[in-house]
DNA sequence: AACGAACCCAACCGCGAGGCC
DNA sequence: GGGCCTCGCGGTTGGGTTCGT
């Protein structure tokens, strides 16, 4: 059963690349850059289609590719990002330095998926398998459940991912709304002291700046001052719900961390991977996902080996900062009113440049409240945002990925409400 | 040693998005 | 606005390798 010919003409070579071909491609790209992939093969003297060349380069020849075994941190990051993003391998790959999306995809399909299944966790929904969905163990992907079950699982996973991204988006919007309100209040106070007949308060930087603060995907319009008050109220309510949803959605991550670690230690003995592996930015994200609301005490007795006590304590200490940091973020989101005096109102000039605006909206206000230690975590707190941003497009950078998933505010509220209860994730997994 | 099954991964395919004319 | 082209993504597969009998 041969494959149907690719879009390219016949006569082009297919299949595994020879060292000579690799050399040609490498030499050409090193000298000229890849340029247009379509015309590259001819210029480089290769009997391949451009697509094949691009694939070979991005997945194999690129110099900044790390090959070999995935570390524990990388595995955990993949699992956690997959829980958040689903099968968005390229987005996941942006948080695993030097790993390609193809490699991650393969690793997921050949290792992690099976391991999760073995642990009784549905690799699609990232939830413990319920009896109704079939208790099939490894390799039981198609064994039980049937089409309806699979569809249900996919839908649940989609909803879960949608909810989490939408939660993040709402938090960002609510934060922007609060900042806008604070700026308006500040401007109002200033103008009131200047003249009683002054025009109504405006967004610092003028209408144009106000317009730029609008979230392109938002259901809120910060520049419509007439609706501002009610919108702010609404945004706050949504953000509060979103914060709760986010916390709930992130709780299974902790179970994953512990479960994976246990699993790894059973498989590989006591080989301990250095959690503080320098330069591995994703670890910050991993840590950030650890939510303190599901207490460590709840998990430890059921899952921790005695000989791991010292290491676990160190880990707890390490995650304590992140927990506090995350709690502070959540309390900021949840707080009904920020003390005006304690909030640094950004100067108007902080917004005009599209570059700075992009940054401030992509990582909304988080950096304003982070300690240097947690800054690294902050930088990956909204992991996929930058993955989807074009350098020129603010809209893209602010918009959450997979726009089709976040179509309406109606579906949004449904999503938030439909977040599975935290207790759905039993921390006491048996291996 | 031989064979089949399972595993693994590089590479292919189809599709959609975005840019350009 | 619509067609064409290029690129990137995710799903899938073919074939090499390893494992088990």
Question: What is the topology?
Answer:
Elements: H1 19-32, H2 40-44, H3 50-61, H4 72-85, H5 89-93, H6 101-118, E1 121-122, E2 127-128, H7 146-194, H8 206-213, H9 228-268, H10 282-288, H11 296-303, H12 309-334, H13 354-362, H14 372-379, H15 394-398, H16 409-417
Antiparallel strand pairs: 1-2
Helix pairs in contact: 4-9, 4-10, 7-9, 10-14
The structure holds a DNA duplex (21 and 21 nucleotides).
Biased composition (Gly residues): 133-148
GO molecular function: DNA-binding transcription factor activity; transcription cis-regulatory region binding
InterPro entries: Homeodomain-like_sf, Myb_dom, Myb_TF_plants, SANT/Myb
What does this structure look like?
Its main location: nucleus. One of its GO terms (cellular component) is nucleus. It is a single chain. This protein is 55% helix and 1% strand. With 431 residues, the chain is mostly helical. It has a two-stranded antiparallel ribbon with strand order 1-2. Strand 1 and strand 2 form a beta hairpin. The N terminus and C terminus are likely disordered. The structure holds a DNA duplex (21 and 21 nucleotides).
DSSP, total strands? 2
- Percent of residues in helices: 55-70%
Helix run count: 16
Strand order of the largest sheet: 1-2
Overall residue-averaged pLDDT value: 51
Strand content: under 5%
Along the chain, the helix and strand elements come as HHHHHHEEHHHHHHHHHH
Question: What structural class do helix, strand and pairing data support?
Answer: mainly alpha
The biggest beta sheet reads: 2 strands, antiparallel
Rounded to an integer in angstroms, the radius of gyration calculated over CA atoms is 25 Å
C-alpha end-to-end distance: 41 Å
Shape: globular
Low-confidence stretches: 1-9, 131-150, 192-253, 266-431
